[in-house]
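Appendix B, example 12.
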Amino acid sequence: MKQVLTVSCKLKVSDQQCIKLDALLDAFAGACQYVHDSVPKNLTNKEGMQALVYYDVRAKYALSAQQAIHAIRRVAANRKSAKSTGHEVKEFTPTSATYDNRIFSLFEKNWSVSMALLDGREKFDLHIGNYQRGKLKGQKPKTATLVKRKDGTYYIDIQLESIPPKPAQSQDALGVDLGRTDIAVTSEGEKWNG
């Protein structure tokens, strides 16, 4: 079973880059809303949605092929989630966009990322600490999410997939009973109270 760790990294952006990032987020949210409004409400299959609106999304919103596919996938996922909880998908806001390794790259050499925007690729330096560097070192991330936070800062949430090590096999077992009088009592007879 795979586990996914998300490493949130702040982007260093210039005023000109802010305009480009906002344009991409607006286009991505607009594409999601268009897909949601144009496709029958009971359709949750991403391939079915893609067959109906892919070319329209590309033409209307100037998204790359992968970005258009990710917008359609987001709508499908949101509909499935809403259906399982008995809610409705209402609207999409320009707060995030999904990336994969075709339109996003991480450069460990100078701790920067390259992302596809509406008018081509743009490079951004990362404003990160030792924790993020340690987690990202030697990794080849496959997916990421561009996020604009409420305070107006931009982050790239990089997802790292790994397979956790199997737990060590042991013949010994210890049972612990948690109670009110004694906080814990082990199967070996040890007790701890408040």
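The longest helix spans residues 15-38. The first strand starts at residue 3 and ends at 12.
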